[in-house]
């Protein structure tokens, strides 16, 4: 479904178009929101509010409206709105904002899908224990203590697998992939674990 077809469907109140929107962007937006707020439940609330607002404002959407850019900006705006009184928020430095902006403004949606597929392939090619620890941490949201208990290993072992996973991923993924990694897992690949 093209961007224009998607917008026209949403404007008509087509539930299939809206479902397509949610299905295609929910996980990436949740990861992005999690990177901003570092709280999975609040990140999901932010994304849910964005989708509700899209539905409410659907009649005002223009056919040439850039869906991806709008959704990412809406998540950021919702994050700011919900955290106006909170002094501590997780700041994104300029290079991460630039990476996210570059990805969200990517004109070819297939290239984003290809980049995500490449990141996932690199994660799948990690050594088995590293991959398992990495996914338990970054995909399932477990902390090192929980992972150690789940796998019945020491916390030092978990830390060693995470360090090894990040070292391998840093070598195999170039700079543009860092933005995709940030979108998928809410963290900068180049920062220490």
Characterization of this structure:
- The chain has helices spanning 3-11, 15-37, 40-56, 67-82, 94-104, 109-124, 128-138, 144-151, 155-172, 175-185.
- The radius of gyration is 18 Å and the shape is elongated.
- The chain folds into two domains: 1-85, RNA polymerase sigma factor, region 2, helix turn helix motif (Rna Polymerase Sigma Factor, Chain: A, Orthogonal Bundle); 104-193, Arc Repressor Mutant, subunit A (Orthogonal Bundle).
- It is built from ten helices and no strands.
Salient structural properties:
single chain, 193 residues, mainly alpha, Rna Polymerase Sigma Factor, Chain: A, Arc Repressor Mutant, subunit A, 2 domains, 10 helices
CATH H-level homologous superfamily name of the largest domain: Winged helix-like DNA-binding domain superfamily/Winged helix DNA-binding domain
> What structural class is derived from the secondary structure elements?
mainly alpha
Order of helices and strands: HHHHHHHHHH
As a percent range, the share of helical residues equals: over 70%
What profile does the largest beta sheet have? none
End-to-end distance, in Å? 38 Å
Q: What is the count of helical runs?
A: 10
Q: What's the Cα radius of gyration?
A: 18 Å
Q: What is the count of structural domains?
A: 2
Beta percentage is: under 5%
User: Which architecture of the largest domain would the CATH scheme give at its second level?
Assistant: Orthogonal Bundle
CATH fold name of the largest domain, please? Arc Repressor Mutant, subunit A
Mean pLDDT across residues: 77
Spans of at least 5 consecutive residues whose pLDDT stays below 50 are 86-95
How many extended strands? Answer: 0
What is the general shape? elongated
CATH class of the largest domain: Mainly Alpha
């Amino acid at each position: 479904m093209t961007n224009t077809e998607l917008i026209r469907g949403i404007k008509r109140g087509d539930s299939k178009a809206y479902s397509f929107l949610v299905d295609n962007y929910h996980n990436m937006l949740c990861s992005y929101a999690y990177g901003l707020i570092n709280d999975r439940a609040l990140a999901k609330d932010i994304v849910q509010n964005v989708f509700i607002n899209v539905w409410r404002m659907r009649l005002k959407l223009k056919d040439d409206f850039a869906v991806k850019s709008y959704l990412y900006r809406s998540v950021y705006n919702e994050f700011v709105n919900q955290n106006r009184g909170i002094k501590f928020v997780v700041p994104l430095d300029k290079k991460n904002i630039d990476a996210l902006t570059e990805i969200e403004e990517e004109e070819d949606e297939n290239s984003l899908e290809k980049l995500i597929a490449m990141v996932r392939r690199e994660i799948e090619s990690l050594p088995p224990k590293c991959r398992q620890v990495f996914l338990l941490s970054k995909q399932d949201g477990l902390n090192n203590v929980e992972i150690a208990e789940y796998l019945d290993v020491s916390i030092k072992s978990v830390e060693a697998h995470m360090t090894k996973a990040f070292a391998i991923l840093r070598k195999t993924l170039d700079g543009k992939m860092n933005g995709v990694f940030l979108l998928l897992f809410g963290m900068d690949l180049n920062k220490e674990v």
